[in-house]
Amino acid sequence: MLLSVTGASGVGKSTVLAALEASDLGGDVTCVEFDSVGVPAGADTAWRHGAIEHWFRFAVEEQDAGRHVLLAGQVPPGELLAAPSVDRLDGIAVCVLHSSPEVQEARLIGRGETADSLVHHLRFGVWFGAHARDPQHAPEVVRVETATRMVWERWEHLQPDDPRWPVSIIDTDALSPADVAERVKSWVRTVLTGRRRRG
Prior knowledge:
This protein is an alpha/beta fold and 199 residues long. It is built from 6 helices and 5 strands, in the order βαβαβαβααβα. The chain is globular and about 45 Å long.
């Protein structure tokens, strides 16, 4: 199974990943960071789609070895669900970390983000939150044709309450990094427990 911890820049993904790597998540889970595959200069949507498929194939290998994969990175749910190899996995669940523009901006400034990049990050953060809540919100942002044959049809007609849109959202505005990590740990354990019961 693939568990994705995702969200826009500045919501706390990397901090959470470090905490998860040192935790008992209630199963055999390999934690990886999306960008650890190596991000080339000028990385674009085509590169990201290829990288998504790379991680899904990795997850299939881990699944065959009896392990789950937790992938932390800035990947919208719609791109994850459209990856060609999704059907080779026995499950996928997505946890979106989200914050208000005000909190996201403060965090980005605090980590040294340049002023000219803030508008892009903040706009993407607003879109990311809306996309997580509703797959029909501005799908053209991610539905870009590239060499990786993404299967957009998997979710193009889904509504927010459809179980085939397996997205949970954690609002991180009022939470400390430790609190966010605990919420994500709880989400992982709940997902894996539910998986075992269904199995």
